[in-house]
Each structure stands twice: as C-alpha cells, then as structure tokens.
Amino acid sequence: MDSALPVSAQAYEEIAFGGLKPVPKYSVLLISKRKDQTAKFVISQIYRAYQKETVKLPFQRGKETTYKVTFQAIADLNRPVGDRGGKVYRQT
Question: Which residues contact 77 (CB under 8 A, 6 or more apart)?
C-alpha cells in the first residue's frame, strides 16, 4: 500500500532490482620499492576505490606467487579540487 497514490491504485505488485547492496569503497595504499634505489619507496594512494574485477589467486609450488588486482578510483568530493582521486609519492 502506498498512501501517496490514489485509492484506485493502492493495490499493486512490485519487483525491484539493481544489486543487493552498494559497492564498498575503500582507501587503497600501495607501497613498492624503487627498482633503481632499493632502500627507497614509491607510495600510491587512492582515496576512494573499488575492486574492478575478481582476484585470481594462482598458487604454485616452487614459484613466487603474484596476482594482478585492478582498482577503479571514484572522486572524493569532500577533498579540494585537484586532489580528489589520489596521490603518488616517491622518495628521493
């Protein structure tokens, strides 16, 4: 029942769709060693991000395991213009 509708339209059936819950958005921080100076780091930060694809975890015996993860950034409108996506820092 929807009291905002006319009396003749009070009875109806409804199907809603579009996902079970909103996509979670998190801050993502990646830290990696510089290849040219192993004692220094590159830091990348995305303020609001979501994981774009499912992570594939290939486990192998005797070989280093690596996996690729892709994130999509969403503008954080609470931050100043020009600083709404993220930052990359590189130690010099």
Answer: 84
Sorted by sequence, the CB contacts under 8 Å of residue 24 that are 6+ apart come out as 50
Asked if residue 64 belongs to a domain, the reply is yes
Query: What is the greatest pairwise CA distance in the chain?
Result: 75
pTM, two decimal places: 0.57
Contact 74, 25 (CB under 8 A): yes
pLDDT in tens, 41-92: 999 999 998 888 777 777 777 777 777 778 888 898 898 998 999 999 999 9
What is the total count of domains within the chain?
Answer: 1
Banded pLDDT at 19 (limits 50, 70, 90): low
The reply to whether 11 falls in a domain is: no
Beta-strand (E) ranges in the chain? Answer: 26-33, 41-51, 71-73, 86-90
What would you report as the CA-atom Rg of the chain, rounded to the nearest whole angstrom? 23
